[in-house]
Amino acid sequence: MKTVLIIDDEEKLRNLLARIIKLEGFEVLEAANAKTAFKKMEQQEIDVVLCDVKLPDGNGIELVQQLKKINPVTEIILLTAYGNIPDGVQAMKNGAFDYITKADDNNKIIPLLHRAFEKIELTKRIKQLEKQVEKKYAFENITGKSQSIQSAIDLAKKVAVTDTTVLLTGETGTGKEVFAQAIHYGSKRNNKNFVAINCSAFSKELLESEMFGHVAGAFTGATKDKKGLFEEANEGTIFLDEIGEMSIDLQAKFLRVLETGEFIKVGESKTTKVDVRIIAATNRDLQAEISNGHFRQDLFYRLSVFEIKLPSLKERVQDIEMLAKDFAQVFAIKTNKKINSISNEFIEALKMHDWPGNIRELKNVIERAVILSNSDTLTADTLPFNIPTSSKSTGEKILSAFELASAEKLHIQKVLNYTNGNKTETAKLLGIGLTTLYRKIEEYKL
Questions:
Q1: Which residues pair with 309 in a beta bridge?
Q2: For residue 347, is it within any domain?
C-alpha cells in the first residue's frame, strides 16, 4: 500500500489531513516532531512525506536532505503557514517535491500526492531498468568456462573497481566492447554514462569533433555548439574502440586528456575539464605501429597501464557449444521460433572451423542457422558453405580424419573459402580441371 507520513506538531491539522488522505486509500502515519519522523522512516518504507516547515525540533526545509538520505526515492512536500519565495527556492534545491501554503492550498494536496506517487513509480521503474542493464552487462553474463576467458575475466574484475586506464587487445570480434561494459558496470561509476566510439569510423576532423565537441562556426556546417563524447561521459566511462586507427596528431590531444583530464573543443580557446575513466581497445600490434611511426610511444605507455588480452575463439574451442546455445536462444526469441537443441554434427563443424571473425562470426552463423531452420533442432544443413561438415545428408559416409579423401576435402574447402566460392579460380589454384572440381564438390557435398 502507498504510504504517507505527516509531520506536524499541530495535532488537529495533522488528524484532519490524515482523515482526508486515508479516504484516498493511502496508509497514513503521523509524527509530531522530527525525531519521531526519523524513527518511522527507519522502521518502514515511506513513499511521501507531508512536513511542516516549523517543527519543535527542526526546520522542514533543512530536514529534506536528511530524510532523503534515509530513502532517496521518498518525495517530500513541505507545508508552511506563511510561504515566501526564498524558502520555496531553497526547499526545491534541497530536493523537496513541492512547497505549499497550509489551509489555502488544502484542495491541492490530494492531486499533489498523486503526482508525487507517479514520480515515485517512474523513479522505481528507472532504477529497476538500471539494475537490469547492470545485470545484463555483469561479468557473470560473459559466456565461457575455458581457462583463457576466465583468466581475462579475473583480470577485468580486479581492475574494474579501480579508476585505472585499461587497454583491451585481441583479434576482431573477441568481445572487447562486452568486456569494456562489464568493467564499467562493475565499477563505482556504474550509475553514470558508458559512452563508446569507434575511432576507425570517422575522419580525423570528425573524430576530434565527436570526442571533444565544437563551437558554432568552428568549421563549415557547425551551426551550433556541440557537446563532445568526453563531456557526455563525464564521471562515467568512455570506450575508445580501434584506438590504433587514431591519427598521430589527434593522439597528442588525446594524450593531454589522459594526463590532465582537460581538452579544448574545436574552434574554442578555453579548456574543458572532465573526470572520465578511459578504456581503449585495438586489434593492432601497437608496438609494431610505434616502430612504423603510426602510434605515439608515450600514449601507449599511458594506455597500457593495465592490458587485458582477449583470447580468440580458436583458443577457447570448449566454449563454442555454450556460446552457440546462448546465441540460438537469443535469435529464437527474436525470430519467434522454438529451438530446443543443436545437433552433434552442427557443433562438431563449429569446433573444426578456424573462426577468423571470432565470436562476431559465430553469432552471425547462428543467426543464419536459426532463420533457415525448419525444426526445433539446428542441423548441419543450415551452416554456410565455408563451414565444412562431415555430412550434409543422412546416410552419407563420414570421413575419418586419417583418410586421404578427408584431407583432400578440407583442402578444397579452404581454397574455395580463399576464392570466396569462385570455382574457376579455385580450379586454377588447385591445378585441376573445372569439371574435376565440380565432381569433387558433388562427391564431398561441399
A1: 169
A2: yes
